[in-house]
Specification:
Blueprint (H helix, E strand, L loop, with lengths): L12 H24 L4 E7 L5 H9 L7 E5 L5 H4 L5 H4 L8 E5 L8 H4 L5 H20 L3 E8 L2 H13 L9 H8 L1 H15 L6 E5 L3 H21 L15 H9 L11 H7 L8 H13 L2 H8 L10 H16 L1
Amino acid sequence: MLEEVDLTKSLDKKEYKKLMPALRNRLYSLQKAAWDAKIPIVILFEGWDASGKGTSIQTLTARLDPRGFKLYPIRAARTYEQKRPWLWRFWLKLPGRGEWAMFDRSWYGRVLVERIENLTPEPEWRRAYRDIVDFERAIADDGYLIIKFWLHISKQEQKRRFKKLVQDPLTAWQVTAEDWEHHSKYDDYLLAVEEMLERTNTEWGPWTIVEATDRYWTHVKIFRTIIASLEERLGKIPGALPPTPAPTATVTEDLEQEEAPTQETPPTPPAEEQAVVTESPGKKTRKTKRKEEAAAESEPEPIRKEKGKEEPAAEPESEPVRKKKRKKETVEKQD
């Protein structure tokens, strides 16, 4: 099963930055819609050590309303938890109506690490498959939406990431001797993972295998899977699904438009300025009047008063007056 997964899938950083804002905004609006519709949501993150579960959760929750979700990093059961049914501690962490619960590792540790490390007897971890399916069926029948991710990387990629973490003093603490031991048993874990995926992949709790070699591809696939699951569930409730944003050009089309030379066109003036331009050329436009008024206000008071005086209009000359003037001019020329 997992050997057929294409681990070479990747996404360009430029495309990633173009896609993520819309995905974050859509997920935020769906979180609000799920709250209004009172839909409880359970999201599981399982995967190999150093496969990027933590960074994926960090990216996912960055845009969500923190009042609407809780994150549970799961570790080995404590002493008092071991005295109760093994799923008891997970029942206590289920979200309320409209809330989200995210699990960094989950109840699937029963059939993975507890199985491979011989922490649980074989009859118990084998019975756990039925317990898990029944548990998920029970909460799904109660209205819960279950989304499960398996982040998959190769053994070589896991080793490369371990070495990179160890070389940095700030991240070296993240890789322990136990992690290296698990890495040496990669093939054993691989068989356990494939059996887990096969026996617990159900209609009410389907698995999504994420090709986690490239983190950009990983984040986008997780976002799209959660958005699609939420839209499908909200679409079954009349009026619950928020409107889908207007479609935009694909990333490839956007990149082609950026590379193609474009001819600049003058911006269209506002409607008010267009109306001003179409006025009679003999009249002053409103824009010109505003400029003159602003210039006049900036001048000293005496100048404004002097400019404000208007010269009296000249009276039109009558015909006798014009004849006398012409006669006078003729006499002066003769002299």
